[in-house]
Amino acid sequence: MSMEPTMVKVRVPAKVNLGLAVGPVVSGYHQIATVFQAVGLYDELVAELAEPGVCELLGDLPDGVTAGEDNLAIRAARLLMVRFEPTSGVRLRLRKRIPVAGGMAGGSADAAAALLACSVLWDLDTDPDDLLMYGAQLGSDVPFALMGGAALGTDRGNRLAPALSRGHYHWVLVFGAEGGLSTPEVYRRFDELNPTPASPSVPTDLLEALTSGDPHAVAEQLFNDLQPAAISLQPKLGETLEAGRAAGALAGIVSGSGPTTAFLAASESAALDVARQLKAEGHQVVRVQAPVAGAKIIG
Q: Where in this chain does the record put each GHMP kinase N-terminal domain (predicted)?
């Protein structure tokens, strides 16, 4: 029998939806077809052994993130506690870099990190497929945060199939200056703008472009059905998208439900130029590469 570690540290990436087709509501959820790409912007979570029954989140948390039972990382740890009844509890410490309510699945990433960290901390009898199953119970984006890379997501986004992706992609992310956007609110606005949406189609042209490794080909296929809804709630997003293209990006999209905008550049040097220009205009920016691995133990 292996000995339990006393501490596990996990790094987990954000995601960008390269394509997001949104359809009608079925069983309470919008049906979607999306292509995820994990990008090199990370949250880090440390899980430490605690007294039996303890499950708490500590640390200097950003605005919009609570340490209560509604936190996805706490919910993930609780799920494993109920399922496996470990002999010890857990204290979680979170270092966030993924923006809160930014359309990059930061909360889902933290849940994925907690699942992986606690499964190792408690030496649980789980495999990657088990964690994907538990992740799907917590949220539609959690399984992809575990998987990473690139993937096609269908149903609620939780049914994943790895997508072949060649090459490296250079992104410039611009964080929303007007605060976060509520995902349910964006979907409600989508419903107002699209009373009878068609069933979502798998974006085959985008998947084919990814196999080429050519950022120009991928840029031509980027789309997001939620983008008009997000822009209607935060009109300045439209100006940000125009600014990114004017700065030399191949294309720009709102990431998921927003308000983070993601600009694809032709190369690392081109991304640096785009980032410099947008930063000079007062935007909060970060450059990232993609695709990257999913949740990973780093200590």
A: 71-149
- Beta carbons of 157 and 35 less than 8 angstroms apart: no
Q: What is the pTM of this model?
A: 0.92
Q: Is residue 91 domain-resident?
A: yes
Residue 130 bears catalytic tag: no
The string of pLDDT tens digits covering residues 35-46 is 999 999 999 999
Domain that holds residue 105: 7-158+293-297
Q: Is 286 annotated as a binding residue?
A: no
User: Is 213 a known ligand-binding residue?
Assistant: no
- How close are the terminal C-alpha atoms of the chain, in Å? 21
CB atoms closer than 10 angstroms to residue 115: 30
Per DSSP, the three-state class of 168 is: coil
Q: Was 1 annotated as part of a binding site?
A: no
- Which one from 15, 96, 110, 225 is the annotated catalytic residue? 15
% pLDDT > 90, the chain: 85
Catalytic pick among 43, 96, 110, 141: 141
Residue 15 bears catalytic tag: yes
Binding residue per annotation — 108?
Answer: yes
- Predicted local confidence at residue 131, as pLDDT: 97
